[in-house]
Design a protein that fits this description.
Elements (H helix, E strand, L loop, with lengths): L8 H20 L3 H6 L24 H12 L1 H11 L7 H7 L1 H4 L6 H12 L3 H4 E4 L5 E2 L3 E8 L6 E7 L3 E5 L1
Antiparallel strand pairs: 1-3, 2-3, 3-4, 4-5
Helix pairs in contact: 1-3, 3-4, 3-5, 4-5
Length: 173
């Protein structure tokens, strides 16, 4: 990481942390060579070879690996992949086809993370606020997902909450 005098110490630490996240996600999905080409090789963890993918008979293609790394890295890389999938003049057809999966099937945020974030946003445990919460999202997209719940104060009115990757919004359904 080049020395940037315009950044505060906290900004430098945050940038270093993000560089490590990107390098680790690329390596985890078999794209360590790309991390090396981008100058992120020094941020690669020493636990190489532990991909954590589910096993399958045929090996993953580079396009598969890029899509999975994009899913791991959050909304911005997913959005970039979605845009690239619509640009056959920039990426090969097989890459475009694989990146198009980012428009159709984005994995939801795991429920424990949603639960923690919801509790943080509400300032108290979610079970104190909701009579019922649906664990499976109604829909999931690159920037967030929607869950259904029933507010304790008004048992007959359902309430939808949208869990963005960074914040939770409550709205009547």
């Amino acid at each position: 990481m080049p020395c940037r005098p315009d950044l505060t110490i906290l900004s430098r630490v945050a940038l270093l942390h993000r560089c490590r996240q990107i390098a680790a996600a690329l390596a985890r999905h078999g794209l360590g060579y790309l991390a090396m080409e981008l100058g992120l090789g020094r941020y690669l963890p020493f636990n190489r070879g532990l991909f954590g993918h589910r096993r399958r008979l045929e090996s993953y293609t580079r396009a598969d690996r890029l899509r999975m790394a994009s899913e791991d890295l959050g909304p911005t890389p997913v959005k970039l992949g979605q845009v690239l999938s619509t640009r056959p003049d920039l990426v090969p057809p097989d890459w475009s086809e694989e990146l198009a999966k980012l428009q159709e099937r984005v994995p939801p945020v795991p429920w424990p993370r949603v639960w923690l974030r919801l509790g943080r946003e509400l300032g108290r445990p979610p079970e104190e606020v909701f009579a019922h919460l649906e664990l499976e999202p109604l829909a999931a997209a690159s920037v967030g997902q929607v869950h259904w719940g029933v507010h304790r104060g008004s048992k007959r009115w359902p309430l939808g909450f949208w869990c963005k990757r960074t914040v939770v919004f409550l709205s009547p359904v």
